[in-house]
Amino acid sequence: MLILVRHVSPLGLVASLVISLAWVPPVVILTVRVLGDLLRACADDGPARPSWLTRTADRLPGWVAVAAGMWAALSWELRFLPTLGALLLAVFGLAMRRRYPPGHPMVGQTGVLLPIVVGVAELAWMGPAILAGVHGGEPVTALLLAVPPVIGPFLTGPLPPRLVRAATHWPATVAAFIAPIAIGAIFLRTPILATVALEVGNPTPTQLTRGGLVDVDDHMTLLLGDDGDIDFIRNDLVQATTLCPDADTMPYSTVSVHGWQVERTALQWLLPTHQPTDDPRCEGRLPPGSPGQ
Fold first, then answer.
1. What local confidence, expressed as pLDDT, does residue 71 receive?
2. How many domains does the chain have?
3. 10-residue stretch averages of pLDDT, the chain, 293 residues long
4. What pLDDT score does 46 carry?
5. Do the strands 256-257 and 260-261 form a parallel or antiparallel pair, or are they unpaired?
6. Angle at the Cα of 85 (from 139 to 167), degrees rounded to 5?
7. Which residues contact 141 (CB under 8 A, 6 or more apart)?
8. Using alpha carbons only, what angle is made at residue 101 by residues 96 and 102, rounded to the nearest 5 degrees?
9. Separation CA 222–CA 211 (nearest Å)
10. Terminal-to-terminal C-alpha distance of the chain
11. pTM summary value
């Protein structure tokens, strides 16, 4: 631990925190705005019971929700974009419910008709990917793509008075207590060291060592192994070094929507990136034909 503290840059820790949790602010902003507006819209005709949720939602203006939606559209993976669309439509529909009286055409058009039209378009566009997820043994991916367009028209209410707080206030309160723990667990699992594979031997490589690169000086290379041990390797024994992609960057799903892999964000899809290839050294094996093979 002392070695890691000495060699890991605080700036690197902060950068890892920001990158790994870039998706969190839109989740908090949009969820609080939707649940708070829904709680206020579905309140009884009498004086509503005070709730931190409605007070917080009132402090989030529309432009903040729009900015959060644009942020999420770029930083969320494709499989979560249907959920983003449902949340944004709910924010818009609930805003119209607060602006216009019950029974006004705008309330039904923005709260019901618009989510139905958008949901049908989403299902038509992602239909092949949903079927691929079902037949490919990826039910979670199929549900993430199929469920939000279906439940979108129901997110603007109304809800039965007895279920309003149970469906809005209490889930948000529980999530507020659990969120710091979940965010901390995600950050602790974020890799902060570059993963490398070293071919070790003299004069030819006979052994391969894989781990997180802690430090390199004129004499030694320090690697953090998967078992948590620090390996000290003399530089004169290192014959080759291979930079390996992190496990989190390797796609696990085979589902794509018209060529857009569901685990890629819009930025990753639009910008040219190097696709990681299968390298036996990154899997802990020497290449075929090596003396140590």
1. 92
2. 2
3. 59 70 88 88 59 86 92 90 94 89 86 92 93 90 93 84 81 86 74 78 77 80 78 83 69 81 82 61 66 55
4. 44
5. antiparallel
6. 75
7. 79, 129, 133, 253, 255, 262
8. 95
9. 9
10. 33
11. 0.77
Give the CATH number of the domain where residue 205 resides: 2.30.30
Residue 28 covered by a domain: yes
In a domain, 30, yes or no: yes
As given in the structure block, the two tokens for residue 66 are 């729009």
* Same domain as 174, residue 46: yes
Q: Tell me the residue type at 19.
A: I
205 and 107: one domain? no
- Are 115 and 155 in contact, with CB atoms under 8 Å apart? yes
What is the phi-psi region of residue 137: left when phi exceeds 0, alpha when psi lies from -120 to 50, beta otherwise? left
Q: Are residues 206 and 147 in the same domain?
A: no
Boundary (domain end) residue, out of 142, 161, 188: 188
CB 206 within 8 A of CB 263: no
